[in-house]
## 1
Amino acid sequence: MRVLVCGATGCVGAAVASALRARGHQVVAGSRDAVDGPHSLRVDYMEPVAPAEWARRLGAQRIEGVVNCVGILIPDQGQSFERVHAQGPIELFRGAALAGVRRVLQVSALGVGSAAASLATPYLHSKLLADDALAALPLDAAVLRPSLVYGPRSQSARLFATLASLPVISLPGRGAQRVQPVHVFELAEAMVRLIEQREPIKGVHELAGPAALSYREMLAAYRRAQGLGDAVWLPLPMGLMKLAALAAEALPQKVFSRDTLRMLERGSVATANALPALLARAPSTLAHGLAVTPPTALVDLRVVISPPVAWGMRGALAFMWIYTALISAALPTQSGVLHLLARCGFEGRAGVVALIASCALNLALGTLTLLRPSPWLYAVQSGAVLGYGLTAAFNMPELTLDHCAPLVKNVPVLMAVLLLWLAHPSRAAARASALRDPRPGVAASHGVWSAGMQRSPGS
């Protein structure tokens, strides 16, 4: 079959195009940057095209099937939800009906449903308009509503991989939002099966992974897939997350906004998952999918330190904390700690209390650095280094201006703590290499899993 894939340079479109070619179909790649030719077609939904003109162009290309994978998460001055998700695809679908196209697939989104529910976000509402328009046309067409799609070229997957790689991972609320990620290769495999199906395909299909996960569990899987150790999880009130999303909308990124945060709050779990039936097997787990196509973070924060070097760094830090505690407790006057505390506003009894608390904290940090290192310990150490340094610098600026720069030396100390933090192994590190799913139906699924990672001749 000769199939037009709209959005062929995106995550889903590229996977579908590769899967179709691997199955022997002819693909016409549609994108905004394409030039009309034997294997390409310019598709820019921001430019209005009459259905009759679409019919002419589809007929000239001898198109038998259309797959619409075009989508944006955040609109900008050059692209709007109304044109990209609704008006543009509707014009194409009507043209396909006029041209007598045999089969049409529309990639929508999980969560698109009744008009009342979809009005909650402009993204979902714009998708619903195109879905309903397609269903009303005399076409053998299917609307596909996938959950979170991950895999090569997925912008959201790169964001999740980046968030998961941070030493402190902020969570919206408690991170209990439910998601059901689906790998783009298996989504593409299901779409090819629909294209090839002999029976009519008209209807709506929800497509998702094998099981629902919490948002925190999903990020933990991304973190394990990157070979990173345990992290500090920081629940944040939804109000703060919404403010962060508002600020992110002003940045040059296309995945995090108030709209996407609202969709995450609603969850992305299928009520009737059609993917197992279409694949004729269970979908792959998130761990297996990330093992097949490892996630790529925007910034690589992986650190590997050999055990002898790590022990040396920990020993040096432990010595610093313990020595500071002992010298302050044994020689409070000679060491100058009481004078420093007085300059910071702790005099008399308050100074003694502050001295005892500081020595106890330093001694605990040094002992735990040797015996029980953990992400939380390194987080507290980082806070202590910053807190001590900034307090002293504000009240005793001469410690920063001095030619020996005693406070400035906290910078490399802080970096040493961060390096040990980033290199701290996971408690599940021994199991990290065994992520491959042992189920025969999944491990042996070399249809799209292999086809999605290659280009056939003529691509």
## 2
Amino acid sequence: MVLVDSSLCIVLANRSAGQLLGYPQGALAGKPVQELVPAGQRGGHEALARAYVLAPTERRMGPGRELQVLHADGTPIPVEIGLTPLPANGRQYTLASIVDLRERRRAQASQLRMAALVESADDAIITRSLDGIIQSWNPGAERLLGYGAVEIVGQPIARLIPAERAQDEALIIAQVRQGLRVAQYETLRRRKDGRLVDVSLTVSPILDVAGRVIGAAKIMQDISRRKQAERALHRSNEQLMQANQALDDFVYTASHDLRAPLVGVTRLAQWILEDDQALAPKSRERLLAIKGRMTRMAGLLDDIREYARAGQDSGSAGPPVPAAEVVQEVLSTLDVPAGFSVTCDATLQSARVGRIPLLQVLHNLIANALKHHDRASGAILVTVQQRGPFLRFRVEDDGPGIPLEYREAVFGMFRTLRPRDEVEGSGMGLALVRKIVGHKGGTCGIDGPEGRGACFWFDWPRHAQ
């Protein structure tokens, strides 16, 4: 509020006027009004102001045209001004009420930018009332759903919703009425041509000035390609699983069927050794070699069958037990040579696990540590630690170690670092470990620097308590 006398000088101004124009309290009093008018507008302003003083009437100024006042620092401020004549003590005064339009202009600019964004957005952007009537429709919605704004605005939004998804829409609007936002809700919408399209919805409440929910704004993304890709991937996974199952079944059956003739050949060699005592030493040596190869081949076929069946849960793993009990069960089935020790860390007692198939994994790792040791004595340590949803088991030995370049290769099928004539084995043990652990969602590997000793680790899911 600024009070001006008939000579166009400021008589008084309130605190808000000083704050708007950048002057301290009382500093505006006595200033000519012309000092508050931009230089380019002063001539026209003075003529209009003096004409108003001669014939004062109440009037509003500003709407539809630019009015400005100068801030103390020289910055022009857009304003709206209302003039009211105030005669007093035989003199004529004018009360000017000044409204700062900057915030309104910023809001208008923001609205224009928002409108431009909505118009240019690739996504469909729709607003609807709480009773389900479409209120706005951008070009993205026309591209996605086929309706033009003229033909769909004012229509029920139910036209876009398949009958089987009507309940979903009701649940979404129920949340919007509570002022809640629904994000990335995947559903179906019906196009103008009747086809259904996969969409992802983000729905936000629209509020009035009092903060009441009066409608909903929807951003709708076309996710048809992604859903098609997901369905194709699902079909591929199903086909791959069927192919893997068929391959596993074939390997299991073939290894089982091949074992019978191997047993027969082994028995024939044994009968020849037992029946013909006059065999030459060289022939006897060769027959024994045949028996050894047949036994090794039978063991390989057994390992292949185990690999084919690895990861196929054959039933409940039973109630959870301390991991230390699983290790002790492994040791009861192994022939631990004199001079070797297998130690369970105290952490295994508190870790609760299902026995099967963890028993098979630990059996392979501990047996390998014993079998591939290069000395007459050694020590093996088994530990476990919590790692989020997994337990990380470690089987550490003080054997010859594994060179860095072979630490991945040893997990392949039929891979050994020493000739089979030196160390009996099929080369399937670590491949079996990796397959079982992978089926459980874990990983496995070898830790530690190059040199003596190896530390095999694997992550195993914690048993549901």
## 3
Amino acid sequence: MLTGFAMGLFRLAVDTPVKLMSGFNYTEGTFLWVVNNIFFQYYSLLIFLVCVVVMIAVSYASKEPSYEKLSGLTFSTTTEEQRAETRSSWSAGDVIGSVVLILIIIGIYVYFSG
């Protein structure tokens, strides 16, 4: 996440002077000119790809976490006691609110799907 954030901040720092200062331009062909002229969706793809590479590299470079640290993190790693505790924390208002929200989303989807 920090890598993507840093790359986004870098792009913002490169784009800001061009937008705010009239007559300011980077020299054509330089690194900053290229970064400034990359379409934002292509730059977003670049950020995504760099973050994937960093995530994989960090995963291989660090040791595997213990099961105790991962327990309860995802549905497949929860114990029966954790599931029961979660279910007991739901109130009728939580369930009704969730159903109403799902119905609203379905209604909006049907209305705007033409």
